[in-house]
Amino acid sequence: MSNKPSEEFVKDGAQNVTEKDVEKVINKSDEIQKKFSAKGPLARFIEDGKLLIAIVKDYRAGVYRQIPYGVLASIVFTLIYVLNPFDLMPDMLPVIGQLDDVAVMGACLILVEQDLHKYKDWKQGQV
After folding, report:
1. DSSP the chain
2. CB 79 within 8 A of CB 30
3. Is the pLDDT of residue 89 over 80?
4. The dihedral sign for the CA sequence 6, 22, 31, 117
5. Could you say which of 12, 66, 80, 85 would form a disulfide bridge with 91 (CB–CB 3.0 to 4.6 Å)?
6. Is pLDDT at 94 greater than 80 in this prediction?
7. For 38-74, how does the pLDDT look when each residue is reduced to its tens digit (9 = 90+)?
8. Is there a contact between 112 and 79 (Cβ–Cβ < 8 Å)?
9. Contact criterion met (CB below 8 Å) for 41 and 95
10. In whole angstroms, what is the distance from residue 115 CA to residue 74 CA?
């Protein structure tokens, strides 16, 4: 899976994101975070995972709205994809089952990089 098709995959998936999906990410945020905390390929995204979950929560709470909805939808799609054990490569397959999650996560980070930096700067200013 090269970066270009992965980015298109995330963009396409983001078009189907609903308010219900945003709620799912918030309600399952601990479960999603565990996917990043586990040993394995997703471990390198621990901090990014926390940041993506935080931006969804802050958007939903109305405290951070300086993000285009398409960017938020890409984040939501990616987090749900990582959560879903039955995606392109089932997560039950050791390591190999997470490689598609890594590709999708990487593609999402490329797509939302600028907005994520802005959010991170904003978040640090809130402390």
Report:
1. --HHHHHHHHHHHHTT--HHHHHHHHHTHHHHHHHHHSSSGGGGGHHHHHHHHHHHHHHHHTS---S-HHHHHHHHHHHHHHH-TTSSS-TTSTTHHHHHHHHHHHHHHHHHHHHHHHHHHHHHHT-
2. no
3. no
4. positive
5. 85
6. no
7. 677 888 999 999 999 999 999 999 999 999 999 999 9
8. no
9. yes
10. 12
**Cβ density class 26-48: b for 16+ within 10 Å, e for less:** bebbeebbebbeeebbbeebeeb
Question: Tokens for 2?
Answer: 């090269």
The 10 Å Cβ neighbour count of residue 24 is 17
CA–CA separation, 43 and 49 (whole Å): 9
The answer to whether the Cα torsion of 40, 42, 47, 51 is positive or negative is: negative
User: Rounded to the nearest 5 degrees, what angle is found at the Cα of 34, between the Cα atoms of 30 and 39?
Assistant: 170
pLDDT digits (tens, 9 = 90+) for 18-36: 999 999 999 999 999 988 8
Q: What angle, rounded to 10 degrees, do the helices at 69-83 and 29-37 form?
A: 70
